[in-house]
Amino acid sequence: MKLLIFGPQGSGKGTYASRLAESFGLKKITVGDLLRAEIKKGTDLSALIKHYVERGELVPDDITIALVKKELEDVENFILDGFPRDMRQVEELDKIAKIDVVIKINAHEEILLEKISARWICSNPKCDGNYNTADIHKTIDGIEYILPPLLPKNDMMCDKCGSKLVQREDDLNKEALKRRLKIYEEQTKPVIEHYRRLGIPFVEVWMNRPVDVVVEKIVEGLKEVLKKR
Predict the structure, then answer these.
(1) What would the pLDDT profile of 96-127 be if each residue is shown by its tens digit?
(2) Domains, the chain, ranges and CATH?
C-alpha cells in the first residue's frame, strides 16, 4: 500500500504517519527527517539545506526530489510525509509510484502555532520520538479542540530510546513558522486538487483530539477504502 499524508506543520502528521506505518507494515518516509539527517553530515549540501530551513523557506525541489527518490528505491509499501509539496514533485512521484490513498489533516493556524512552539523531539536521529507540552482546550469556527499534552514518562527524556529531548530552532521562530504555513497552503492546494481529479480515495480528518483518537479515525477510513478495492 502506498499512502500520502498531508497536513500543515504542527498538525501531528509525523506522529500519525509513525502509528500508521506500525499498524499497516509500511516504511515511513519523512522529508523533514531526510533533510535533517543530511544537515548533520556537514557537507556543502548540508550548509545549503540549513540555510533554507533557518530562513523558514522550502528546500529547492532538486534537492528534495533526489533525497526522496533514493529513499523510495525498492520500497513496495510506504507512507510519505512532506512530499509531494508542489506540482513538479507530483510529476516526479507519479513516474515512480501509483498512490493508493491520500490522508489529509486539517487544523487552524492558531492551534498549529501553539502546538509547534511546544513541540519536543528525540535528539537521537535514528529515533522518531515526538512529544508536546501544549494543553489546548478551545473552539474555533465550530471546531472544538481538546488536545492534552503528550509528555514523556521521564522528564524530557525519550520513552523510546532514553535520549534527551530537544526543540528545533525553526520551531521557535513564529514569523518563520507563519511563512512556512502560508507557503504550505499555497503550494499544497493544487497538489490536493490533482489527486482529487485522479479519483484517488481521500481520508480526511481534523486534528482536534488526542493522537490515539485521530489515528483511530484515520485507520477506520483506510479500512473502509480497502474494503472497496
Answers:
(1) 899 999 999 999 999 999 999 999 999 998 88
(2) 2-227 (3.40.50.300)
